[in-house]
Design a protein that fits this description.
12 helices, 9 strands, 329 residues, 7-stranded parallel sheet, Rossmann fold
C-alpha cells in the first residue's frame, strides 16, 4: 500500500510519516521544499514536489496512491492565509484524491469545531468535514484537542527562563495528546475495517487547565512561574488591529482560536470505544505528567552539565593566573 502524507514536515505530519515508515508502508510525502524535507527521504520516504495551493501539482503526486493522510495546515507565520491553505487547498486535495480513486482519506479536524462558527480555523475545519462527507470518498475524521509538544514553548521554556507565562480568560481544560500517539491512530486508521465515513475523537488521557499545567511545571522544574493574565478584551483588540495588515491575518485567526482555549469550556471526549475500535491500549498512551517529566529531567540534566563545564573552565582560568613563589636570589 502506498500512502501520501500531506503536511509531513509539520509537528504532527512528521510523526505520522515516521510511524508509517516504521510499520512498513510505502510512504510518499507532498512537500513544497525538497531541502526542508530532506530528513523524510533519509527516513525512507519518497518526496513528491507539490503544493495544495497549486492544484495542478497534485495529480502526479497521487498517482498509484492507495490512501491519503492529510496533516496540512497553515502556520501562523505563513504568507498564505488559513482560507487559502485550510479551505481552498483542502478542497483541491479532496477533489484530486477522488479523481485518483484513493481508497481512504484520513483527515485531521478539531474537536467541537461545529460549536465555534466565529473562529475561522474551527469553521473552516467544520466546512471541510462537510465537503469531505459530500465528496464520495471513503474518509475517516480524526478530531484532535491539542498537542503536548506545544506546551513546551507555552509553559516549559518560559518557566525555566523566568519569563512571563500568559494565561487568558477562564482556562479551558484540554485533553492534550503526544503527536506520536496521534500518529498511532492515524496509521492504524489505514487498515481498521468498517470505519469509513466516520469521525473519532483522539485526545489525551485527561483534560488539564492552564493552572494545573503551570503547577505541574513548577513542581518538575523546581522554579516558580511568573503568571501574567491577559484580559479577553485586550486579546480581541489585538486581533482586530492585526486584521488591518495582511501579514497579521493568520496570527489574528490563531488568536481567535485562543478565545476557545479561554472560554472555560473543556476540549475533551471519551476514548473508551475508540481504543477498542482501533485495537490500541490506553496504558501505552503518554500521559502529560510523564511527557513533561521526561522533558524537564532531560533539560535539568543538561543545565547541570553546562554549569559543571563552566565551573571547570573557571577553575582552570583561576589556576593559570596564579603567580608561582620565587625566592630572592
Amino acid at each position: 500500500m502506498t500512502i501520501l502524507i500531506v503536511g509531513a514536515t509539520g509537528t504532527l505530519g512528521r510523526q505520522v510519516a515516521r510511524r508509517a515508515i516504521d510499520e512498513g508502508y510505502e510512504v510518499r510525502c507532498l512537500v513544497r521544499s525538497m531541502k526542508k524535507a530532506a530528513f523524510l527521504r533519509e527516513w525512507g520516504a519518497e518526496l513528491a514536489g507539490g503544493d495544495l495551493c497549486y492544484p495542478e501539482t497534485l495529480e502526479s503526486a497521487l498517482q498509484g496512491v492507495t490512501a491519503v493522510i492529510d496533516a496540512a495546515t497553515a502556520r501562523p507565520t505563513d504568507s498564505l492565509s488559513i482560507k487559502r491553505v485550510d479551505w481552498e487547498g483542502q478542497v483541491a486535495l479532496i477533489q484530486a484524491a477522488k479523481a485518483a480513486n484513493v481508497e481512504r482519506f484520513i483527515f485531521f479536524s478539531i474537536l467541537n469545531a461545529d460549536k465555534y462558527p466565529h473562529v475561522p480555523l474551527m469553521e473552516i475545519k467544520r466546512c471541510t468535514e462537510v465537503f469531505l462527507a459530500d465528496s464520495g470518498l471513503n474518509y475517516v475524521n480524526i478530531k484532535l484537542a491539542g498537542f503536548m509538544q506545544g506546551l513546551i514553548g507555552q509553559y516549559g521554556i518560559p518557566i525555566l527562563e523566568g519569563q512571563p507565562v500568559w494565561v487568558t480568560g477562564e482556562s479551558s481544560p484540554i485533553a492534550y495528546m503526544d503527536t506520536q500517539d496521534i500518529a498511532k491512530f492515524a496509521v492504524r486508521a489505514l487498515k481498521v475495517e468498517n470505519i469509513d465515513k466516520q469521525s473519532f475523537p483522539v485526545v489525551g488521557t485527561r483534560a488539564w487547565s492552564a493552572e494545573e499545567i503551570i503547577k505541574l511545571c513548577e513542581r518538575l522544574s523546581g522554579k516558580d512561574a511568573r503568571v501574567t493574565r491577559m484580559p479577553i478584551s485586550l486579546l480581541r483588540a489585538v486581533r482586530k488591529s492585526l486584521r488591518f495588515f495582511q501579514w497579521g491575518w493568520n496570527i489574528s485567526d490563531r488568536l481567535a482560536f485562543t478565545e476557545v482555549l479561554a472560554s472555560g469550556q473543556p476540549l475533551n471526549a471519551s476514548m473508551d470505544e475508540v481504543y477498542k475500535i482501533f485495537d490500541l491500549d490506553v496504558n501505552e498512551t503518554t500521559t502529560l505528567e510523564s511527557y513533561l517529566q521526561e522533558y524537564f529531567s532531560r533539560i535539568m540534566k543538561k543545565l547541570k552539565e553546562i554549569d559543571y563545564e563552566k565551573a571547570k573552565t573557571k577553575n582552570k582560568k583561576q589556576k593559570s593566573k596564579k603567580t608561582p613563589f620565587k625566592a630572592n636570589s
